[in-house]
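User: C-alpha cells in, sequence out, please.
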C-alpha cells in the first residue's frame, strides 16, 4: 500500500507540474493545442519532462519505495565491507562514491540509481547478502557500479524521453488526420468529437507504446551485457559468472518494480520471448562472459 500511495502521489505531482509548464510554454510560444506545433510541445513537455523529473527524483523515490537504509556509519563488519568495496570500485571506475544502502527483501537483488554518475545510489537486498558469498556480492556490486560509471541512468532517460515524445506526437498527429478525413471536404462534416478523439489518441499511444517498449527493452539488454562485463573487470570474471549462476538457481521472483527493476541485477520472467525483457536470460549472460 505504501508503494502504491507513493507511486500515485509522485505521478500526480509530476502531472500537475508538467501541466503548469505546458500552459506556460504554450502561452510563451503562442501555439494552439490542436495544431502540429501544439502537438509537438505537448509531446516534448510530457515525453521528456516526466522522464527527467523521475531521474532527478530517482534516489529519493528508490529509498522510500523499498525502505532502504543508507549506511552513513557502518554498524558491523558486513556494512564496513560493503562501504569499503563500493569505495574501491568507485575509485577504479573513476566516479564519486555512491551512497550505499541495504533494503529488506528475500530475493537476491541489487540496483543502482541516481541523476548522474557522480550522484548515485547502490542498494543491495538482505536476501543477496545472506545467500551469496562475498566474492559473489563483490561481483554484483561491480555490475551496479558499471551501470553508474557507464551513465546508464541518464542514457535510459534520454532514450525513454525521445521515444515518449514520438509516441505522444505521432498519436495526436494521426488522430488529427483521421478526424480531418472523417470531416472530408465538407466544412460542415463532423470529425472526431472530443471523447472520440482522445479515445483514438489513447489507442494509438498504447500501440506505439508497445513498439517503444520493445526498443527500450532491447537497449536495456545490451546495457546489462556491458554491466556484466564491467562487473567482471572490477571484481573478476569468475566471480561475476558465479554470481549469475547463483541467481540462475534462485527460486524467488524479483520484488523490484518499474525503473528499479530495469537497473536490478536480476530480471523478471520472460515476456513475448525476450522482446520485452529488460535483462537477457541468465544463461546468455554467462555465455557472454565466458566468451570474453
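Assistant: Sequence out:
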Amino acid at each position: 500500500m505504501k508503494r502504491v500511495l507513493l507511486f500515485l502521489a509522485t505521478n500526480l505531482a509530476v502531472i500537475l507540474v508538467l501541466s503548469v509548464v505546458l500552459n506556460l510554454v504554450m502561452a510563451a510560444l503562442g501555439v494552439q493545442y490542436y495544431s502540429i506545433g501544439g502537438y509537438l510541445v505537448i509531446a516534448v513537455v510530457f515525453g521528456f519532462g516526466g522522464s527527467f523529473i523521475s531521474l532527478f527524483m530517482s534516489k529519493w523515490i528508490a529509498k522510500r519505495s523499498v525502505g532502504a537504509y543508507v549506511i552513513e556509519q557502518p554498524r558491523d563488519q558486513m556494512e564496513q565491507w560493503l562501504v569499503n568495496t563500493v569505495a574501491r570500485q568507485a575509485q577504479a571506475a573513476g566516479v564519486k562514491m555512491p551512497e550505499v544502502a541495504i533494503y529488506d527483501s528475500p530475493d537476491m537483488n541489487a540496483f543502482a540509481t541516481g541523476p548522474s554518475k557522480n550522484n548515485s545510489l547502490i542498494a543491495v537486498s538482505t536476501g543477496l547478502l545472506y545467500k551469496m558469498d562475498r566474492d559473489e556480492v563483490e561481483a554484483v556490486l561491480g555490475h551496479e557500479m558499471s551501470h553508474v560509471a557507464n551513465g546508464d541512468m541518464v542514457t535510459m532517460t534520454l532514450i525513454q524521453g525521445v521515444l515518449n515524445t514520438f509516441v505522444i506526437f505521432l498519436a495526436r498527429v494521426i488522430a488529427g488526420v483521421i478526424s480531418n478525413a472523417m470531416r472530408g471536404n465538407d466544412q460542415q462534416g463532423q470529425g472526431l468529437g472530443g471523447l472520440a478523439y482522445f479515445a483514438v489518441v489513447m489507442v494509438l499511444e498504447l500501440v506505439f507504446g508497445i513498439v517503444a517498449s520493445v526498443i527500450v527493452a532491447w537497449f536495456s539488454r545490451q546495457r546489462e551485457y556491458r554491466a556484466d562485463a564491467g562487473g567482471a573487470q572490477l571484481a573478476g570474471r569468475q566471480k561475476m559468472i558465479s554470481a549469475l549462476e547463483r541467481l540462475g538457481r534462485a527460486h524467488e521472483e524479483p520484488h523490484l518494480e518499474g525503473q528499479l527493476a530495469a537497473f536490478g541485477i536480476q530480471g523478471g520472467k520472460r515476456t513475448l520471448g525476450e522482446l520485452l525483457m529488460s535483462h537477457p536470460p541468465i544463461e546468455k549472460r554467462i555465455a557472454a562472459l565466458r566468451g570474453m
